[in-house]
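Subject: Sanity check before I submit

Could someone independently write out the structure tokens for this chain? I want to compare against mine line by line before I put it in a report. The sequence has 217 residues.
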Amino acid sequence: MATPLNIHQSSLLARSATEPPGVQAVIDTLHLQKHIEGGYFVETDRDTFTIPNPFFDDKPSVLATSTKQSPIRNASTSIFYFLTPASPIGHFHRNKGRTVHTLHHGRGRYVLIHADEVDGKKGVDARIETFIVGPDVTKGERLQWIVEGGKYKSSFLLPDDENGESQGLLISETVIPGFEYADHNFMIRPQLDELISPAHAEELSWLLPKFSEGENE
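---
Independent answer below. Compare away.
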């Protein structure tokens, strides 16, 4: 029997349909827009230096968010990404490229499913990793974290302090090579069930995108 992960839904989830004034001010000032994964984002840099697309010869995934491919890629891209009280979950997805994350403010929990480690291995559960990102490094919270390509990740907002409130989790992400939606796919429920134990899949199912019981959009 699988040991429970004890990854509980945050008390901040679905608390408000509107953003607190301070959070909305950040959205407006940084010109953030809604992200399909949840939360908000804006692209801040797209390197003009280009490289051959290392994924160009890969077999296209039927779950890819886009089928548009190019033989060249920008060397890197960067974004601001913001989880907020009204949009507190970044739903399970993966990218082919490596992503470097840097904290600006706030707290959140990340959940990684290392699908790349069990690729082609039937009957083997993927490793699950979870950690808190935040300013208190003395308690093990992370200021910077790296997610290699091929791993599913999800994140959700945590309170800033014991009062249970949050002004959002604002980070930067740099993707190498530069991000394109052809490298991206959401996780759907059948994939979750295939990768991890039934008990763990049920425990993490609330982090799937809302359409995950059926086909990818």
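---
OP: Matches mine. For the report I'm noting this point. The first strand starts at residue 33 and ends at 34.
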